[in-house]
Amino acid sequence: MVTLEPPEGRAGDGGEMPKTSNTLPKGLKAWKSLKEHYREDMRQRQVRDLFRRDNDRYDTFSLEACGLLLDYSRNIVTRKTMRLLAGLARQAGVEPLRERMFAGEPINVTEGRAVLHVALRSDREDWFHVGHQNVTEDVHRVLDAMLDFVDRVHGGVYKGYASPEPFSDVVNIGIGGSDLGIVMAREALTHYRNPAVRLHCVSNVDGTQLADILRIVDPRRTLFIVCSKTFTTQETLTNARAARAWLASRLGEEAVPTHFAAVSTNHEAMDEFGISPDNRFGFWDWVGGRYSIWSAVGLAVALYVGSENFRRFLAGGRAMDRHFREAPLERNLPAIMAGLAVWYNNFFGAETQAVLPYDGRLWRFPAFLQQLHMESNGKRVQRDGHRQRVSTGTVIWGEAGNNAQHSFYQLLHQGNRLIPVDFLAPVNGSGTWQSQHNLALANCLAQAQALMEGQDETEVRRGLKKSGLSSAEIDTLAPHKVHPGNRPSSLVLFERLDPETLGALVALYEHKVFVEGAIWGINSFDQWGVELGKRLARGLEDAVADPSAYAGKDPSIRGALEAISRWRD
Length: 569
Known about the structure:
The chain is of the alpha/beta class. Helix content is 47%, strand content 10%. 44% of the residues are buried.
């Protein structure tokens, strides 16, 4: 395996290459030491051998905080590796950058903004400032109004237009950070839901998702939430206008202010849409979309689980914030996980990482983490605009564990790629039968063991011989049954999946992303790569409606438009 370092000026980058810099992280002493350590000590190390030589390995490479147990003993690391990774984080300035974030300084350098999603889950007595303004007061003012709205809906005080019955369905209309986190939390906290409320989420702009929901809800008992900071997001507003037209056609225009709420800062646009001033909940430019579930964007989640459970969710995130800020890097959950990610990405050439929860309620957690990681750290330049010369932005993917075992685990066990794995599992299930959850736990632990230990050809041949196969049959079959092992994994174990635990898990990965970005010297809090395609889509909207109107010169676009015209109903 080789270090994955893209060469300068490679073909196909498109456009003029930015200036290069060796400062972060390649110029750091710890990086050079890690490179030497990898080449001389770790390239051929087998984790199973490390266990045989060290009876205390689990105790050394495990850590518990905020209700989470991280077992990273099955990783290709030694005590020296972890010392060097902590040193790398320290030399890269993780600690002062962390303090600058908590202090409300504008560490989002391309947009000149603070990064203060941590303030969204603060205690009332905490002090978070942007400039000279204490934003904690603003956060709690919005939170109190939001949860008061939730309580009034749940108590039947706030009802639909001319309806004696309380709301039964909530439809959240958003996209990206205004959808992925909400869907994830809805699935994860299904056992904590208010049984009187069903939560639906709409993000796709093709209309089918919204149409399917509108077919099953009662307009008199349906509350819509429009999540768009600017109230201009094309996909969200297209769906919102369609929902508005549907509601108005059944209850009249006068019903719109009662049946719509919004999370936005654009009051003029909300006025034009018909959102009542009482149903508006704001947030701030120092909250990125993928970090916004803690804000009023989480209104739909709060309506689903209730105000008390939403506060418990915030409390879990707050506990992880304090751990991340106070624990030394050597005993810091996010820093350890980030260090491991950098270790595999940049020294072993592992471009992807799998996240595999052994609880069906977390089946959307990997999708949520995809945006969090890849929108944050999928960057090719450093904060100072110089080109980053090492690989950034690990590709995150995954699925609920038991389904995944019958899908892509074959690749994990016997493929040619090194793919580190995060296993996530609660000890106590939330279903009726703990015995079934015990089976899931057994599978989780067994897969971690199998990935590490593997099965060599000697073991395979011995087993085949015992089964009565001939020597010729063994020679034919044995190579196909060998498992190389030495596939690294970490286990995140927790007592049960409750609101506090989910909050701690989300905050854990948020801070992991922060540390990775700091080590790589990139800005984890902008997303300019999202904008180009959206701008081009606006330019093509008229051409898709009328292909003959296309005046561009792209032959592929023209060919697709011709097919659209030919096949259109």
